[in-house]
């Protein structure tokens, strides 16, 4: 859908006086079109890491493999670049201005990416936040919805640890 709204800063940034008035919204005619968001599978995520740009939106500790509170193994997809979503927002939780996001992602290599920027996280949730930040910055994000949970569940897939993409 092209007419999308986001609560920048989450619910905490948008709280205010509540009304007891019951709303009566008009009936809409929206019809979802599955597949409109470009996505990656494990193989294409690995390809992005090798020949494009694949961002890991999780906390740096999880990227490095220092801690892994959810999945069987810690670390990151080899070649992925650490880009925690916490660096996309101000202290109040609202997104950074577009020009600051653009500079952040350009510094990570987004300007040289011709096929969009691949993004993953733990399970696809924080990755969606990163995809929106890329969009605000003027880049195209491509989500790997299976993310680290899917990647790390297959013992045949390589795992990198430490602060560098490897």
UniProtKB/TrEMBL annotation:
Domain Rhodanese: 1-23, 48-160
SMART domains: RHOD (SM00450)
Species annotation: Streptomyces parvus
Recorded catalytic activity of this chain's protein: thiosulfate + hydrogen cyanide = thiocyanate + sulfite + 2 H(+)
Entry EC number(s): 2.8.1.1
Tagged with keyword Lipoprotein: no
Annotated keywords: Repeat, Transferase
Name of protein: thiosulfate sulfurtransferase
InterPro entries in the record: Rhodanese-like_dom, Rhodanese-like_dom_sf, Thiosulfate_sulfurtransferase
Enzyme class: transferase
Pfam families, per database record: Rhodanese
Gene Ontology MF term list: thiosulfate-cyanide sulfurtransferase activity
PANTHER family to which the protein is assigned, alphabetical: THIOSULFATE SULFURTRANSFERASE
Ranges that cross the membrane: none
CDD domains assigned to the protein according to its UniProt record, in alphabetical order: TST_Repeat_2 (cd01449)
């Amino acid at each position: 859908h092209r007419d999308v709204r986001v609560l920048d800063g989450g619910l905490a940034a948008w709280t205010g006086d509540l009304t007891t008035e019951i709303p009566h919204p008009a009936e809409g005619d929206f019809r979802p079109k599955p597949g409109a968001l470009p996505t990656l599978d494990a193989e294409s995520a690995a390809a992005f890491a090798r020949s494009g740009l694949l961002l890991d939106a999780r906390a740096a500790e999880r990227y490095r493999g220092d801690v892994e509170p959810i999945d069987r193994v810690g670390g990151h997809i080899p070649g992925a670049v650490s880009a925690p979503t916490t660096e996309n927002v101000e202290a109040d939780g609202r997104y950074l201005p577009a020009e600051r996001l653009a500079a952040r992602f350009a510094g990570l290599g987004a300007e040289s990416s011709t096929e969009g920027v691949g993004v993953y996280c733990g399970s696809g949730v924080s990755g969606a936040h990163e995809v929106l930040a890329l969009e605000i910055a003027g880049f195209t994000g491509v989500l790997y919805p299976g993310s680290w949970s899917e990647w790390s569940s297959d013992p045949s897939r390589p795992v990198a640890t430490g602060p560098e993409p490897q």
